[in-house]
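Researcher: For the annotation table, I need structure tokens for DUF3623 domain-containing protein. Please keep the output clean. Sequence:
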Amino acid sequence: MSPYAVPALYAVAIWWFSTGVIILLDHLPRRTFPWSMGGATLVLGLALWGIGASAGDASETGVFTAFTAALLVWGWQEIGYYMGFVSGPRPRACPPGTRGFERFRAAAATSLWHEAAIIAGAAAILGLTWDEPNRFALWTYLVLWGMNLSARLNMFLGVRNLNAEFLPDHLGYLGCYLTKKPMNLLFPFSVSIATVIVALLGRAALAEESLAFEVVGFTILTTLMALATLEHWFLMLPLPSAALWQWSLPGRGAPAPVTLTKPEPAEIGPTRDAA
């Protein structure tokens, strides 16, 4: 089998499965959230230990460990935000009629502590991998962070597919910060820059001078970056991309129809304080 096949397939499988698990946990009754967050925090500790232990391991196993651990750290960030434990100083809908920069400021206030936690996570991984040969945990985390931020900005400015069915009911207030539009000015730059990065990472994976662990690491990063770029296209193309994770919506069946305004902010649904 090609030396690129196993790392690529591993990246696809863990990306798909981990995303589905997070969606599933976020849609369980809210009384389960403390247990999920507690379990995720234990996993976070193990993941940070794994990153530190693998940083000096310049082997293929070390790369797989680093990538998986970085993905688990990112999973903690996502669970903390979407369950409401780490959000921002104003986790509420924007006031009626809010437009322009004021709307952006209100949106930022819903996730400010989340962004600070992401920066803290990056700093922790940087410290654990500092001056070590295996820094693929750091590169993985930065790819996830950068592409997540890009996707959120694009959804704020306007995309065709918001996939609103994946937003938990208790976060319905975020609907006013999302816009349904056929295109926005940022999107072409986002996918173009992402595509260039995919090409650069792919070239590093194919380089003859790359060591065996670097081939694995750059193949995983290339695949992850390509998947994140594909997710961006899913925001715009008329494709049923939500079907990839329909299994992770327990007991909901087919998603309820959502009324969205064009190009005004999209009201996704009512906020529920209890599940």
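Researcher: And a one-line annotation?
Model: Residues 50 and 231 are 28 Å apart (CA to CA).
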